[in-house]
């Protein structure tokens, strides 16, 4: 069976099986899961303290290198395995006000409330829907032939490098979403308020990383400032790499807006499956990606605790095989290469009209 041959009954059956898998995992959540996130937070905080302590001697090259790397790892863990996942509500079931989606503010220039509005709602509801999901190319990159080519895309390999280095700023600006129902002065005021929130967050982050901690290192101010800047760039490049490899490699599907017309839960699940990609690796690698190396499982169940994604991945893959749906996965090098090939290829003007995909309309679903 191929994806284009799924029937209404197939989609309903797929939804039942994935719902059952979700219910099974959520009914089993307990102490081992709570211990996991508490342990990760302890390690992250310990690494940050260790990194910043080493940078008190940042004028010494070994201390600078060790402190920068340690701080970068701490920032990666805080952003990806902790911040991103906490703000998805993955740990809300614990009823811990300190580890809750409504209270967590991450070490990033993007304000949590703006990020949650754009990412949790728009991206995870309208995944890969052109014109609805603003994460398709992040508004500046052409990553699929269905996107209209513009002359500015010729330079996208260059500004994708800059986006990677300063990814948190790109995300902050990208997350500046204003309610479509607002008009006129209300809309402008909402946008100004969003910009002010980003400005306050940037000042807070700069004050911490580029003023307070460098000042604490005394005469080593400049070397500590450089270390903090480097740690932030490392974190940004890593986050950009993992996220892009989960959304843009290989044959990842995009969809026209009409795909949403009457979309059933089974069809929504199928859209997540064919619109996401995984990265293979070991436990430490998955931890450092925030388990977004299991992007398929994350898109299916964004509020499921991330430590469970590796557990359900073989079963999700088996369901894809059962229903003839692709399960996109590959090594980090394979996914990075595939993603960059797309970015370079689609920088050039198209030679022919974009192809039509099986997912573009309801014609592929029998009985509709």
Architecture overview:
By secondary structure, the protein is mainly α. The protein has one domain (3-364). Helix content is 58%, strand content 1%. It is built from 13 helices and two strands. A two-stranded parallel sheet has the order 1-2. α1 (8-27) packs antiparallel against α12 and α8 crosses α13 (332-345). The longest helix is centred in the middle third of the chain and has 33 residues, at 184-216. The protein starts with 7 loop residues before the first helix and ends in a 23-residue tail after the last helix.
Could you give the topology of this structure?
Layout: H1 8-27, H2 31-54, H3 61-87, H4 112-125, H5 156-165, H6 167-174, H7 184-216, H8 221-247, H9 265-274, E1 278-279, H10 283-288, H11 295-300, H12 309-323, E2 329-330, H13 332-345
Parallel strand pairs: 1-2
Helix pairs in contact: 1-9, 1-12, 2-3, 3-8, 7-8, 8-13
The gist of it:
It contains 13 helices and two strands, in the order H-H-H-H-H-H-H-H-H-E-H-H-H-E-H.
Strand coverage percent = under 5%
End-to-end gap:
19 Å
Q: Helix segment count?
A: 13
Main sheet summary: 2 strands, parallel
Count of extended strands: 2
Total domain modules = 1
Radius of gyration: 21 Å
Pairing-aware structural class of the strands and helices?
Answer: mainly alpha
Strand ordering within the main sheet? 1-2
Compressed to H and E, one letter per element, the order equals HHHHHHHHHEHHHEH
Q: Judging from the principal axes of the Cα atoms, what is the shape? A: globular
Could you report the average pLDDT, rounded to the nearest whole number?
91
The low-confidence runs, each spanning 5 or more residues with pLDDT under 50, are 356-368
Helical proportion, percent range: 55-70%
